[in-house]
Amino acid sequence: MAQAYTPGLTVARRAAVRKMRKLPLPGETLVKVGDAVEADSVVARTNLPGDAHPLNLSRALNVPESDVERHLLVKLGEPFQKGALIAETKGFFGLFKSRCAAPVDGSLETVSTVTGQAILREPPKPLEARAYVKGVVVETLEDEGAVVEMEGAFIQGILGVGGETHGELVLAAERGEELTAEKVSPMHEGKVLIVGGSVRADALEKAAEIGAAGIAAGCIDAADLRDCLGYELGVAVTGAEEIGLTAIVTEGFGRIDMAEKTFQLLTSLEGRPASMNGATQIRAGVTRPEILVPMEGEGEAYSASALTLETGAAARVIREPRFGETGEIAELPVELQEIETGARVRVAVVRLQNGDEIALPRANIELIGG
Amino acid sequence: MADNRLRSILATDCGSTTTKAILIEYVEEGEGGSYRLIARGESPTTVEAPVEDVTVGALNAVTETQEIAGRTLTRDGRILKSNGGGEGVDIYISTSSAGGGLQMMVAGVVRAMTAESAERAALGAGAIVMDVVASNDRRLPHEKIEQIRRLRPDMILLSGGVDGGTISHVAELAELIAAANPTARLGAGYDLPIIYAGNVDARELVTERLGKRMSLEIVDNLRPVLEKENLLPARKMIQSKFLEHVMAHAPGYKNLMEWTDADIMPTPGAVGYMMQTIAEGRGVNILGVDIGGATTDVFSVFDGVFNRTVSANLGMSYSVSNVLAEAGIDDTLRWIPFEVDKRALHNSVKNKMVRPTTIPQTVDDLVIEQAIAREALRLAFEQHKLLATGLRGVQQQRTISEAFTQTAAGETLVDMEALDLIVGSGGVLSHAPRRIQSAAMMIDAFQPVGMTQLAVDSIFMMPQLGVLAQVDAKAAMDVFERDCLIPLGTVIAPNGAADARSSLHVSGTFPDGSPLDETLPSCAIRQWTLEAGSSMEVRCVPSGSFSFGEGRERAATFEATGGAAGLIVDARGRPMRGVPGQLNLYPNRK
């Protein structure tokens, strides 16, 4: 059956999380099943083909396209260094020669007698896939990488910027508190900062400046995110931003404190190493940003089946006017009901923590799992 | 003679988030029968992890359909073929845009000529065009190589040169593509399909450069001469390669392809086919729009010429923040009749982006969402007008009058005065709490001129009907007319500026005998009830700057048809300026 509600983000003290660590091209897998790995461990390695550089020899030598092959000084596939002569005309009695030097280190890949164009290929670039999380290799992918399993805390955010990183968790601001530049200090270098309230653009900049690994905050104002990125984030596809650190918000935009459960879990893990990734893609195959804290055999295992829309389930409102408030499902009427807008939708009656009971579209609540 | 008519048809559309199934049956009613929608079901699409098999989502949607219809449609995890005992279906067909649909890169020699024709061919086949590479696109060769390598398209369409024209530029493009050697999006396990539809004289050169590295297909030149575009062979090959390569490598599609009784079509390709069928069947010029969460597709058929564009980042959820960024906050605020805190608006829009399934709960929230929708539709339509053009680069003999009016090759084919019907679909239009809100959004965004009928697709069935039209056009049109299309009514709007001296007098007699006799001052808009299925003659006398194309002060008479929003007369001027007046769209607002 179609689900009319948002399943909610995972906030679990203990979960077994598997991470596929795959190379973009076939290469060499360096680990075997059962190997213990650290976040920094290299699990696979390959060589990316170097960049291609087109060079129009016909124009450079001032000869017809069909003649360029005759003037080559290197063979196809032959390596050369930047500045080396790769083509030369005979000139006039050995004088007035036209020459062409290699603009990069590389080799000659192709030469066209139709366009006069040569393609020079730079040397391959080594590329490594790292484990990203501390854990155990549970599967190897022939020539492509491995699957690493981590046991520990698993917290999903709603949106992040920046890619994979890791560092020690440290509390920087309580719930209800704003992280400003003044509160960021050199002691945060290499750390992942926990912020119970919102984070300001100047704090993100200062944290990046002093070399913090990341920030996990409750929320951010849309204007602060724009100031930090230097552009308006129009589509929620992130992960490649280069702002000097990785930042994750767990609730959203505006002024919403980090959910109490998330905040308590993160602060209880202060001092432990955490891996985090801001990559987010909210379309076909949703990817949410994440914080992973390895903790072997501690806590109760997380069960995905806990996330069922039923009476008594813990839920949070995820749209105005009661955005961020939590409570429990009191009733799930079957019949469609008309809401203020005039739309007829399936609703859930939620008993909020302050005792209010409100009916709201099921699409506007999320279950708090884990 | 035995009746070999199809009795039951099951069709699914595997979308990027939801798979929708519909059951259509032949129903005997009155004199002769017709095809009707019996039931509809939906379920989340299952192309991604952890399921990674599209057939699971399709079966779930069909299972919901069978529960609603009270008929057995599946057995042992398969679609059941009709067994004569009232179980199963005669045929099963499907469309798909799951996994991001068909993503293509196109290349041509001149950006405004062969490259643009290639772009139209790809869009018409249902693709999202990730980039258009052209010899004259001002990027340096190494920049083009980097871009091609980075994109990882599903397929490339290479064109270039008229037959007998340039070969060196085409060869150069082929060399750049070969140097980039891009990997297919769905993995390195198969050769990237590339279709060559350019100068016939360059075929050998292209084959030499690309034949060994990629899965190369050669079709007729899509621009054999400057004056002619021949897009059909390229479009057909794109759809064939879509099945053979792209679909075959998407999770579960091999099974789905075995189950279906006709080729799976890319969803927008099927919608486009349906639009063409409607335009041809009714003999009208049509504009269609599908506004989704991430993208907005615009389709048009004017004088039989079909065009489709997709605005990749203009949508109402995943990309809603981009709509606000592109439209600008001031253009958006003109549709909101109350004070809005701009900071709060930005935060609220971004919260919708990260929680895309939420819906407006308050009337103010609904007003804001529909204001953004107007801007998304407007921007997507602007992009459509730019691409739906006559051929550029064509030498034309002009008459003196054309020279004065500056009509030129490459002008948009979208002629608002000649437009007969606008069909809207997508959540914000199909599910607006009041139909008049859908009508208002389309009128504000597209600004139709003269008389135009408006309609919405009730539950976005056009993809399934598009693929059905290829199998049984009557069945598709029956369901389209009776169950898919909801007529909203008619809008009448004069051309010209809404200045102080302009006004519009409308008169006529409603079907119940009551008179229509009103003068609309400049900037006004009015609405009257005119039930679906009824019609009336409306005489319009424009004055001042207003006209209906017959000259100023010249009366025009229109046959208006009814619908859920009735008859709307819009005297806000064309183009609309400033903060336009509105109908009472939100009676619930306190």
Characterization of the model:
The complex is a heterodimer of chains A (370) and B (590). Chain A has 370 residues and is mostly beta strands. Chain A contains 4 helices and 30 strands. Helices cover 9% and strands 42% of the residues of chain A. In chain A, strands 1, 3, 12, 13, 14, 15, 16, 17, 18, 20, 21 and 23 form a 12-stranded mixed β-sheet that branches. Chain A has a 5-stranded antiparallel β-sheet with strand order 29-28-25-24-30, with no helix packed on it. In chain A, helix 2 (201-210) runs parallel beside helix 3 (222-229). The longest helix of chain A has 10 residues, at 201-210. The two termini of chain A are 23 Å apart. Mean pLDDT of chain A is 90; it is low at 1-5. By secondary structure, chain B is an alpha/beta fold. Chain B has 17 helices and 24 strands. In chain B, the strands form 5 sheets. Chain B has an 8-stranded mixed β-sheet with strand order 15-14-13-16-17-18-24-21, with helices on both faces. A 5-stranded mixed β-sheet of chain B has the order 3-2-1-6-12, sandwiched between helices. A 5-stranded parallel β-sheet of chain B has the order 8-7-9-10-11, with helices on both faces. In chain B, strand 14 (296-302) and strand 15 (305-311) form a beta hairpin. Residues 400-407 of chain B have low confidence and may be disordered. At the A-B interface, strand 5, strand 10, helix 3 and strand 27 of A face strand 3, helix 3, helix 4, helix 9 and helix 11 of B.
The whole-angstrom Rg of chain A is: 28 Å
Greatest interface and its participating residue counts: A-B, 57 and 70 residues
First-to-last CA distance of chain B? 65 Å
| Mean pLDDT rating of chain A | 90
Number of helices of chain A: 4
Distance linking N and C termini of chain A: 23 Å
